[in-house]
Amino acid sequence: MEIRNIEGLRVSQVRDLVYQGGKFVVFPYTVSFVLMTLKRSSDIYFIRPDENTFKYSYGYVFLNLIVGWWGFPWGPIYTIGSAYHHVVGGKDLTQAVMSHLTQHDPEANTNTYNINGIESSNQDNNTTETPTYNIPV
Fold first, then answer.
1. 84, 57 in Cβ contact below 8 A?
2. Residue 49: helix, strand or coil by DSSP?
3. Does the pTM exceed 0.85?
4. Which parts of the chain fold into alpha helices (H)?
5. Cα 45 from Cα 102, distance rounded (Å)
6. Which residue in 42, 11, 37 sits closest to 26, CA to CA?
């Protein structure tokens, strides 16, 4: 799944925008074929604090209305559930995405960790002092 609308931003900038009210959302949609119903989600979109989600969700809203309700019995049920998420601004995934971005931040100094008092290092016998992080388990 791709994250859209964060091109050119560092993780620290994204974190600041999230603190100001930004969020990561997906827009669920339903596609039905008489006896088969598929429930899917869009790519992840970063919604900035001053943005409205409609410009990202309108295509999925129309997809739901046109092909979502055809399947029996799950088509109408899934279509209503998907429509709910469009009305409230998408399904919020901010915590999960920020956790992933923080763990994979290329600017973070993750050379040495201290987990339960056991120090592990990614460096080979380097005498340079590196910060130690205490990670609760």
1. no
2. coil
3. no
4. 11-19, 54-67, 74-87, 94-103
5. 17
6. 42
List the structure tokens of 24: 């990561």
| Strand partners of residue 91 | 26
Return the closest-CA partner of residue 55 out of 27, 97, 91. Answer: 27
Query: Maximum Cα–Cα distance for the chain, whole Å?
Result: 67
Instruction: In whole angstroms, give the CA distance from residue 57 to residue 69.
Output: 18
How far is the C-alpha of 115 from the C-alpha of 119, rounded, in Å? 7
Computed on alpha carbons and rounded to an integer, the radius of gyration of the chain in Å comes to 21
Q: For residue 18, report the phi and psi dihedrals to the nearest 5 degrees.
A: -65, -40
Q: Are strands 112-115 and 118-121 parallel, antiparallel or unpaired?
A: antiparallel
Look at residue 137 and tell me whether its pLDDT is greater than 60: no
Mean pLDDT of the chain: 83
Give Cα separations from 26 to 10, 46, 77, 94 (angstroms). 21, 9, 19, 10
Confidence of residue 20 (pLDDT cuts 50, 70, 90): very high
CB neighbours (10 Å) of residue 6?
19
85 C-beta neighbours (distance < 10 Å), count: 21
